[in-house]
Design a protein that fits this description.
By secondary structure, the protein is an alpha/beta fold. The chain has seven helices and 13 strands.
């Protein structure tokens, strides 16, 4: 079981995820990589009539079936304990054997109060700095040398204390866009989002478009985002956030009056 550094939350270490019948071949690989690193896994089985027997009898797995399709918001189905350490998991990602321990170590170095963490980060560019307007991604499979402030995190790589996990009632407003819902909940609670450091390829992406659950809908079949998503994105973009695109060590120095944040710092 994972050894925690001093200062880490002392509740259970919990992994939360949602799965569908189409992605069952990847489910078992995800369980095999994550379950040995945590105290408990919560898995929501979307559109399943019943949970596979071998998973159902595992005492470390809490398996849930639901008539409603929660989509990716199912990761938030059960509320964790306030002092738990929660990992939100996505079957399309390959997690290494030290994923939990290294994530807890980095989050503890930054500090759990007023913060949420992850590996896929998104930063919005206004276009005023000479760069293209829109969202810049920090892909989770790419190298990032230092933790960096972001506006949104991909919820398949989120690490957070239990009291920073929004309830399912709120997240069901964003079933297909949980990144927006989670970012909005964090913003309103005054929590800053940090993309954690990692080596290139430490997290592995399943980029095969023919793999179950990977193929995006054709461009002309993609629905317009619902109003809660549109409104949430505008609220996130319009927020005054002093940590975005700033390496954490520079942000700390700036708060101590020893340096100024630089949005285009090359220490990533």
């Amino acid at each position: 079981m994972t050894t925690r550094p001093a200062g880490a939350p002392q509740g259970k270490i919990v992994a939360q995820m949602v799965t569908t019948p189409e992605t069952e071949p990847r489910l078992r690989a995800t369980i095999a990589s994550i379950l040995p690193q945590v105290d408990r896994m919560v898995i929501v089985f979307n559109r399943y009539d019943e949970v596979p027997a071998d998973i159902l009898v595992n005492p470390a797995i809490e398996a849930i079936t639901t008539d409603a399709d929660t989509a990716d918001a199912g990761r938030f189905f059960l509320p964790p304990g306030a002092d738990d350490i929660v990992f939100l998991i996505d079957e399309r990602i390959g997690y290494p054997a030290d994923y939990v321990s290294r994530s807890i170590e980095q989050a503890t170095e930054i500090g759990w109060d007023g913060a949420v963490f992850g590996y896929k980060g998104l930063i919005h560019r206004s276009g005023e700095d000479g760069q293209p307007r829109g969202w810049r991604q920090l892909p989770y499979a790419d190298q990032l040398n230092r933790p960096r402030g972001v506006e949104m995190l991909g919820t398949g790589t989120v690490v957070a204390r239990g009291d920073a996990i929004p309830p399912i009632g709120f997240m069901l407003n964003y079933p297909q866009d949980p990144d927006v819902g989670f970012a909005l909940a964090s913003l309103r609670a005054g929590r800053r989002a940090w993309a954690l450091a990692r080596a290139d390829g430490w997290l592995r992406a399943d980029d095969d478009p023919d793999a179950p659950g990977n193929a995006p809908p054709p461009e002309d079949e993609r629905p317009e985002p619902p109003l809660p998503v549109v409104g949430g994105i505008h609220e996130i973009i319009g927020a005054e956030l002093d940590h975005v695109d700033v390496p954490h060590h520079r942000y700390v120095k700036a708060k101590g009056g020893r340096a100024r944040p630089a949005r285009n710092d090359k220490g990533a």
